[in-house]
Amino acid sequence: MPQVALVEAMRAGDKAAFSLAVRRYTPAMVAAVRGLCDPSTAEDVIQESWLRVITAIDGFEGRSALKTWLCSIAVNEARQHLRRSRREIATDFSSGEASPLEDRFTADGDWRLPPAPWSDQTIEGLLERDSLQRCLDKHIAALSDDQRSVLALRDLQQIPVEEICNILQLSHSNFRVLLHRARHRVFAMIDHFMETGEC
Predict the structure, then answer these.
(1) Is the model's pTM score more than 0.70?
(2) How far apart are CA 93 and CA 40, in angstroms?
(3) Of 55, 73, 82, 83, which sits most exposed with the smallest number of CB within 10 A?
(4) Can you give the pLDDT at residue 145?
């Protein structure tokens, strides 16, 4: 069902339309809040978000995609939950966080220590190894909330950059910094795993 028809059906209180929207958009909403709260809290946040959607759907103006609007509601709900829990979301873009690959380059940007060539195994084949999957989960969990959210929305959910910036209320430059840092950390972890077999 196209977005316009879906929104109109939701406004009319059509339960089937809401069920379709829940099935279609909940994965993106979960990805949007993944970096802001733990999985059990995320379930509560998503439920609260859908309750808010029921009362707010009449106010949806269509200036963004429905998915973007729903993800924004979920992120705002997660942030409110954190405020109620008296936790703060720390977003410090000015931090001098170095790239985990920084020592591999010369001042001119050439490789000082190039990555070891990977075997002909594919990443999919590597991920079948439980030890790599556990290591990847551990390192992604250690990313900052914003890095984890950006990585999940862009690389896992394939949401366009403009939508992610709207959902997370980030500038394009902050988005690029967060994604770059997250990807570098994941790459460095996989490279280390390939070289040593250790997390």
Answers:
(1) no
(2) 28
(3) 55
(4) 76
State how many domains the chain has. 2
| 97 within a domain of the structure (yes/no) | no
pLDDT at position 22: 93
The last residue of a domain, from among 54, 84, 114: 84
Task: Using 70 as the pLDDT threshold, list the residues of the chain that sit under it.
Answer: 86-129
Where among 34, 51, 84 does a domain terminate?
84
Q: What is the DSSP string of the chain?
A: --HHHHHHHHHTT-HHHHHHHHHHHHHHHHHHHTTTS-HHHHHHHHHHHHHHHHHHGGG--SSS-HHHHHHHHHHHHHHHHHHHTT------TT--PPPTTGGGB-TTS-BSSPPPPP-S--HHHHHTSHHHHHHHHHHHHHS-HHHHHHHIIIIIS---HHHHHHHHT--HHHHHHHHHHHHHHHHHHHHHHHHHS--
Q: What's the pLDDT score for residue 135?
A: 81
Do the Cβ atoms of 35 and 20 come closer than 8 Å?
Answer: no
CATH code assigned at 136: 1.10.10.10
Q: Given this model, what pLDDT does residue 103 score?
A: 64
Indicate if 112 and 179 belong to the same structural domain.
Answer: yes
